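Appendix C. Worked example: Luciferase-like monooxygenase
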Amino acid sequence: MKKIPISILELATVVDGGNHKIAIDNLVKVAQHTEALGYNRIWMAEHHNMEYIASSATSVLIGHVAGKTSKIRVGSGGIMLPNHSPLVIAEQFGTLETMYPGRIDLGLGRAPGSDQETAWALRRNNMNASQNFPEDIGHLQRYFSKENSTAKVRAFPGEGLDIPLYILGSSTDSAYLAAKLGLPYAFAAHFAPAQFRQAIAIYRSNFKPSAKLAKPYVMACVNVLAADTEEEATVLLNSLISLIIGIITNTRKPLRPLKEIPEGYHIPEIKNAVDNMLACTFVGSKESIKTKVSGFIEDTAIDELIVTSHIYDLEAKLKSFSILKKALE
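Step 2, the predicted output written as structure tokens:
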């Protein structure tokens, strides 16, 4: 099997009976555990107006996690750039890279990371900001470059620092952009798998080498729920199904432990939507996870696997990461 880096995506999800402080504390424990296992990086996703997700102040959280670890790369998966001034992001990530040199990643997306009303609250009179996404990435690159030293507007800290940029996508749109810019491409197959294969094919066929990257680099984020037995893993899946139903029906709840499949899953339209979202979800024991995930890696020829694991019990979640790492060794 092709041996590739394995990384983590976290949202600092609030579990039933927990709160935001516990979610952030658990995130740190995940980072420390996966660092010890040899995972490559841990990224946090920017979301807003979501009661049960604690990763809204993504840059702050990145600094917190980096300060509690020592070698794992820490970054954003991603920063939703149209929500921010490129100068502010350059300064924030320049500060993070200065504090934790050689460990900070800047993954960039164009979605608001929330609903349209919240997008307005974030972007105010600049609701067309997503149209400027390519231009704003150019601004970011310029702020980080040594060549910006003669400009009237400069980023301190930030200027002259080597902070890797990654383009995130959940459709084919960003595939073209990542290819044009010659940057690594990370696809959100954990919740939007429908266009995954088409998007990475577009990225690879249109890729133009850059000063940062000589050939395409594809990263795929998938769901992995691993346990000692198939039965235990299947029970873990119930919580993820419930979480997805909450997203689909706009009835979000904290992550809950469920022994049975949620009632809503028996409604054909909901079941179909959930199953579509679970197309890149791998559930099982060490043996079956090895077969399924290694098959996925071989079939798609990805360069890095990013894993997200929505599991209620922290110990079971940490064990899932351990089982996956052993399965792929």
